[in-house]
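Lab notebook, bench 4. Still working through the backlog of constructs that have no structural model yet. Next entry is a single chain of 131 residues. Request: give me the structure tokens for it.
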Amino acid sequence: MKTVFMKIAVANEGGFVSPHFGRCAEYTLFTVNARNEIMEKAVIPNPGHEPGFLPGYLAKLGVTHIIAGGMGQRAQNLFAQEGIVTLMGATGSVDEVVQDFLNGSYVEGESLCEHGLFPHQGCEHGHHHEE
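Model written out:
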């Protein structure tokens, strides 16, 4: 029996990485063994965008890593408190991005949903960003 090494949650919009983690339609979960082989792939609906809910929810599902186009800094901090690594700046097909990550060729970029001097620049919504 192969032991689970990590569980990756990818923000998914129609098979592509969503630019904003908390507002995507669904998450694709990849269960990976110590040889970086995908053991299982499942798609779950986004349970809703409530402040502070997603970090605990995904931690209970065993998620160790998150890949998304973007996420607010507060949300990244909340995931870090749960021991979950967040990787931002991803674009393209969910499957290809995960393969790049597993192959060691994933290059993390800037969050596509930054919240600094110009709030919501690059975001298509005007809400607070608290995952």
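Notes after review: The chain is about 20% helix and 25% strand. The chain has one domain: 4-103. Flag for follow-up if needed.
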